[in-house]
Amino acid sequence: MAFKSNTFSQSVTVNPAAHFKTLTKRQFPDVMPHQKEMLEEYAAQFEAKPDVALQLPTGSGKTLVGLLVADWRRIKYDDRAVYLCPTRQLVRQTVLQARNQYGIDVVDLSGSKNSFSPADRTAYMTGAKVAISTYSGLFNSNPFFENPDLIVIDDAHAAENYIAKMWSLEIEANSPLHTALAEYLRPYLDPQDYSRLTGDWMGAADATWVEKLPSPLVAEICEGFASIVDAHVDSDNPKLYYPWSLIRNHLHACHIYLASREILIRPLIPPASSHAPFENAKQRIYMSATLGAGGDLERLTGRKSIDRLPAPEGFQSSGVGRRFFVFPSLSLTGDETDTLRLDMQKRAGRSVILTPSTPQAEAHAARITNNFSGCDIFMKDGIEADKAPFVESDQAVAILANRYDGIDFPGDECRLLCLDGLPRAMNSQERFIMSKMGAAALYNERVQTRVLQAAGRCTRALQDRSTVFITGTELVDFLADSRQWKFFHPELQAELAFGVDQSTNVEPADILENFNMFMDNNSDWAHADQMIRTAVDTYQQAPFPAMEELSAIVKHEVIFQEALWNNDDESALASARTILGGLNHPDLRGYRALWHYLAGSAALRLSEDDGDGQSKAAQEQFEKAKKAAPSVSWLNTLARIVSAHEDGPEDDQRPETLKQVELLEKQFLALGTATNAKFEKRVAKIQKEILSPETFETAQVDLGKLLGFSSGNDESDAAPDPWWLGEKIGVVFEDHADGKESTVFGATKARQASSHPKWIKKNVPGTENMEIFPVLVTPCTQAKSGADPQLDNVRYWALNDYVLWVSRAVAVLRELKGTFPGEGDLVWRAEAEQKLEAESLTLNALLANLPMATSAMKIVA
């Protein structure tokens, strides 16, 4: 055969932009001006930095930038370069772009390493070609990429889902391991939490329930806990086996979260430095649409410091393409919204639906199957493998659960994007920190990035346009609430303002008519587009609060995690104290409380005796945690576990109110913050139904839920009337809404009322250790002498007084709803707690104010 001609290295250009001109098979004459500027700046200032983030907004050609840097360094330094994508579908897409558009010869090394061809292996190992793979191709316990020199991470904002997963044990509900662990943990859980963990939910709010086992408790039970996992996990189940093999001996550095659908075990921050292929690379490059100002990229990737190269001035401030936002729930009912969505899908031909969960995706698929004949349905697995069948179909809907990035539908591929639900908390750790600790500020940028990525699936270039159909209470609140807009770039603010205006006080036919004009791309739509363009200059973008503080401490957060992982508790405690010195912003008080807790846990691990200095330091940190965020109920749970002191009377009552406020917050979130329309409909229904004996109990249940109680009813034989349950106490009603003041209350009814607590404890999960108090609601003022003994433990509530109390309760709830700013606001929680107590709307206040029936009713023969 002839001698090979590529034995020696190619000549090296001065920078990656110049390298592009040497690629003879490229389809473009040169890189775009903004790409050239970034690539030249990279070579001049960032070439030797170990960690570099490149801001590459949607439509900026980030794939070309990343591939050019990788191919240039491959030639200049003989680097083994690997370019990582979130999914295999994106790997294939990137490989095709590299070869067919850019003239860069790459190899696809995704999937099982046993399937890699010898030629492709050799091309990467010798530095002859850049390898394209998935995140999981590098982040696994036995990767093919053992010692890469350069790692390019595409869509770095999505990295947490893939990097942290390497050290995350996710135990699904109803699995044998989940059942075994739930039973093992039962003695350490409140009965209600055990019921939630095992699936006995008492209401819709339980679907988002999350709890965390305090680290001091984990230290006590870790041996038994680990032995159970050991017994259930083996190499036949790699999804559990490999992450468990990495965290098995580091449980002290992990957190155990209990949620309604899973048990999650993971460290706070991925210990990426312990993964040699990632840690030992010469350079790691992170490509993202946003760089973030609060250190979120460092938290996602477990790096102490990442240098940032922003997009050229002005390029990152504008949007890409045009979005026409539609918010049907601002004017329409749920049924009208579903019908409108189907009508728009039929008109569009091809549409995409993104949802946070598989059940939601399946519900959409069923609705389309039943109402849209001849429509092809593509679920996540099918379209990730190949989207061509979808694009080639005239009538098709792609339904993707929990996939807000990575799959694009530009140009004519799709003109209608339906977003159903906010991708706020993507795992139990995020949900715990946001909702339980009230530290949502930590994730402001992360959530915003997810939403903007989702909304941009069909607008990937300047000429693209898409209607974005928004549903789901939280997502509508996030995008339609003008108070949030200042944190978005000006063009998006203008698009949202236009969308909200066009969706308010309209009928379905109005929205459909506007959509038809959009689809036709006629002069009417051109006029609307011009209105949006003109409005852009009237908006300015503001930074999220507290970003500077979060950015300043992130290095020490990573050091803390690394020290904990390596059993260096002294360094971990020192880092935690440094972090606490930098957390002063009021919006971070929940996060500050979390770090006091983490500092206390580290100090407790250093303690050798209950009374030594480290033990006292731990107690001091736990007390500071409670003071930093007194409205966080979870810290009371922590105090009960780590503190030997007995709670006083005030402490007995306060956790009840804190839990009530948290559930009240969930009710308000479900009813929406963008408008009070749903709230007003709910309270109007309660106030109407409370006046009728036929609907009295329904109103009582609804009011209990709205007040933040676990509220229910049961129509089975011998069941009581509605009940309201808190954390440790509850009330169960015996209602006589159809009674008369002249009626004499009999012994049989009294006996029923008195026995209701026993029924609750026997039939309602998680109540066996609660104190349940029966309450009689009646207009009756007299009771027979035979009823007297049965009423000893029954409280009395005159029907007229109850109805007046309901009106006052609704007024207080309306006031609280009016000031509600959104999830996890600790200032609002504190104010709500005080208001509920001052207005006697807590269970403890109710019980204290209601007289016993034996003293309130006249006993007659």
TrEMBL record:
<dbReference type="GO" id="GO:0016818">
    <property type="term" value="F:hydrolase activity, acting on acid anhydrides, in phosphorus-containing anhydrides"/>
</dbReference>
<keyword id="KW-0347">Helicase</keyword>
<dbReference type="GO" id="GO:0004386">
    <property type="term" value="F:helicase activity"/>
</dbReference>
<keyword id="KW-0067">ATP-binding</keyword>
<dbReference type="Pfam" id="PF13307">
    <property type="entry name" value="Helicase_C_2"/>
</dbReference>
<dbReference type="GO" id="GO:0006139">
    <property type="term" value="P:nucleobase-containing compound metabolic process"/>
</dbReference>
<dbReference type="InterPro" id="IPR006555">
    <property type="entry name" value="ATP-dep_Helicase_C"/>
</dbReference>
<dbReference type="InterPro" id="IPR027417">
    <property type="entry name" value="P-loop_NTPase"/>
</dbReference>
<keyword id="KW-0547">Nucleotide-binding</keyword>
<keyword id="KW-0378">Hydrolase</keyword>
<dbReference type="GO" id="GO:0003676">
    <property type="term" value="F:nucleic acid binding"/>
</dbReference>
<dbReference type="InterPro" id="IPR011545">
    <property type="entry name" value="DEAD/DEAH_box_helicase_dom"/>
</dbReference>
<feature type="domain" description="Helicase ATP-binding">
    <location>
        <begin position="43"/>
        <end position="309"/>
    </location>
</feature>
<dbReference type="GO" id="GO:0005524">
    <property type="term" value="F:ATP binding"/>
</dbReference>
<dbReference type="InterPro" id="IPR014001">
    <property type="entry name" value="Helicase_ATP-bd"/>
</dbReference>
<protein>
    <submittedName>
        <fullName>Helicase C-terminal domain-containing protein</fullName>
    </submittedName>
</protein>
<dbReference type="Pfam" id="PF00270">
    <property type="entry name" value="DEAD"/>
</dbReference>
